[in-house]
Amino acid sequence: MNPEFRILWKVYLAEIIRGIGAFIVPFIIIFLQGKSLNLAQIGILWGSISLTNFFMEIPTGVIADKYGRKFSAMLGFFVQYLSFFLVIFTHNFLFLLGLYVLFGIGFTLTSGAYDAWIFEYLKSNKKEHLMHNFYSRKLSFSYLGLIIAGLLGGYLAGFFDLYWLIVFDTIFGMIFLIILLSVPDPPILKDKEYIGFKLFFKKTKEGFDYIKQNKTLLLLTIASMFFTVAVGAKELLSQPVYIELGMPLSYIGYVASISGLVIFIIPNLIFGFSKKFPKKIIIIFSIIEFISIFGLIFVENYLIFALLIIISFLCGAIISPISDSIFQHNSKTEIRATSMSMLNMLISVVYFIVFLTFGILADAYGAKIILALSGLFIIPSIICYSLIKN
């Protein structure tokens, strides 16, 4: 068996299951609109995740570094599935806000910790060079699951209320967790000292200083922050635009399935090139991402809109693993999870601003125009990627 799959087959299987358990993803904004929420309110809900991530990222990153990445990641995934399952049972905005904050806590427990867990697992097997493979294939296998989720979700959306999709998602989420439980967690530090505020601040300073002193990490961080504006706008506004343009509800699931198929195939076809020419690949697809998002301003047909969104998701699926792999390989082991947490914390600030403001702007000026203009923020990202040394 291929050494990569011999070591990571359980992780990849779990990612497929995780992808299948995403029935609600293509419909989540529409589902929330069905609870009589406008885009501004939905933006507040999504922004609360980012705000929670901002305040909790450092403590959870330190906990992962000191007490185990696997425990942190597994607990975080469980909290996410539980909180989202409970969303089914309320229409009260304040209750929904509380559940989204809980979801944000779960997210912070997984961010940084999951990837750092897998990196150290590979390192313990002297296979850390496979980390780029993991990032690429993790997305590919997850989107392979999304192909199935989109098809089934689109079909089921024509017969069941959307909340049933969340029920199915939760079931697959539990299977995902059971599979991940069997993946080892290599010990990093034997000492288990008490984590107080002093250590929190110390780790925070270490993380920020390390990113500032490492030009590659600094450029990646700045690029990621600008890129996040377009990503956040797409997450919040693309589904309402589908409805505005007249796309049938079930078609949205099928578009997600097609996106999963494209993202499963294309990144694997160019996998060798992305490892050999990472800088060129990341710049080329950032430019394509800009064109596809900004080009939405001229689109009035939902099929053309769907095509450009699919291209945009493809670009993100190619860019993200390259960026993450470079970040991991430029971070020291002892603060790797904390460094990743620093990046995620800064990105959370951007997400919070985007969700909070773009929801209001979309209610005032229309979702499509705001989504298209978000593409302009990709330009600074392209500049930063260009400045990274090969």
Rg result: 20 Å
Strand content: under 5%
Quaternary structure classification: single chain
Low-confidence stretches: 189-194
Largest sheet: none
CATH topology: Growth Hormone, Chain: A
CATH class, named Mainly Alpha
Q: For the record, give the distance between the C-alpha atoms at the N and C termini, rounded to a whole number.
A: 32 Å
The chain-level mean pLDDT equals 88
Q: What percent of residues adopt helix (DSSP H or I)?
A: over 70%
Helix-strand sequence: HHHHHHHHHHHHHHHHH
Tell me the number of structural domains. 1
What is the CATH architecture descriptor? Up-down Bundle
Task: Note down, in words, how this protein is organized.
- This protein has helices at 3-20, 28-33, 39-67, 69-86, 93-110, 113-124, 131-157, 163-181, 197-213, 215-244, 249-269, 271-276, 278-294, 302-329, 336-365, 367-373, 378-387.
- By secondary structure, the protein is an all-alpha fold.
- It has one domain (3-182, 207-387): Up-down Bundle (Growth Hormone, Chain: A), CATH 1.20.1250.20.
- Helix 3 (39-67) runs antiparallel to helix 4, helix 10 (215-244) packs antiparallel against helix 17 and helix 13 packs antiparallel against helix 17.
- Mean pLDDT is 88; it is low at 189-194.
